[in-house]
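User: Is it possible to get a 3D structure for a protein together with its bound compound? The compound here is glycine. I've pasted both below.
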Amino acid sequence: MLLAITRGVSARLAEGELSFVAREPIDLALARTQHRRYVEALRALGCTVRELPADDDLADSVFVEDTAVVVDELAVVTRPGAPSRRGETASIAAALAAYRPLREILEPGTLDGGDVLVIGRRVFVGASARSNADGIAQLREALTPHGYRVQAVALRDCLHLKSAVTAVAADTVLVNPDWVDTRPFDAFRQIRIDPSEPHAANTLRLPQGLIQPACFPRTRQRLEAAGIVVTGVDLSELQKAEGAVTCCSLVFRTNHAA
Ligand code: GLY
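Assistant: Yes, that's possible. Here is the predicted structure of the complex:
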């Protein structure tokens, strides 16, 4: 089964970390409604969803992706780059322990899961303000014995690697070339976001389709022209918290019950 771990929206969402977007008021009730619809979209596209309860003390804790990197063989619990987010990992580690052997990123390493793009056995890691060289080296050490090739990628002007590039098919990436060096992705077919939609590269690829924020119609047209089926989800309030569609779940295969 395909399992998605999610966590409810913190009452303090509006107090979360912001790096590249300006702070503006967030409608918390709407954020929760949008998150519920996102969870419904995960289910509609074949996921069994395990929803962890919201933690009101941890403003960014809905963005579970940043707390772990899950591959078939193991899960690496991260040490998030923002100190305010480090309290998010213990409950995720407890949840993941049922499904995978665990490793963890240790001080002085930092790593955010939003910086880690796994495509087959290739693992691209954004060298961002959140993920440092030590964290990337620790991830490499954990994954290399399992046949993964871990490569650091330069970023600019965005929070995470997956703000700038995600996989939309086994051989295709969706990319914002203004935010990431595209050369590491030369082996892949590349679809560029529409330049008027710089945040559109963050998509969540599931076996039955691709989830993308609904507010990027021009980039969606480019994906559909390439034969990719897109489910649009309105996430305006989570986007104000510098989140997007990959951030709100950890998706992986398991034979265990949820
Ligand atoms: N607000 C999401 C983050 O900065 O981690």
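The pocket of glycine is lined by residues 16-17, 19, 60, 63, 82, 159, 241-243 (CB under 6 Å). The mean pLDDT is 97.
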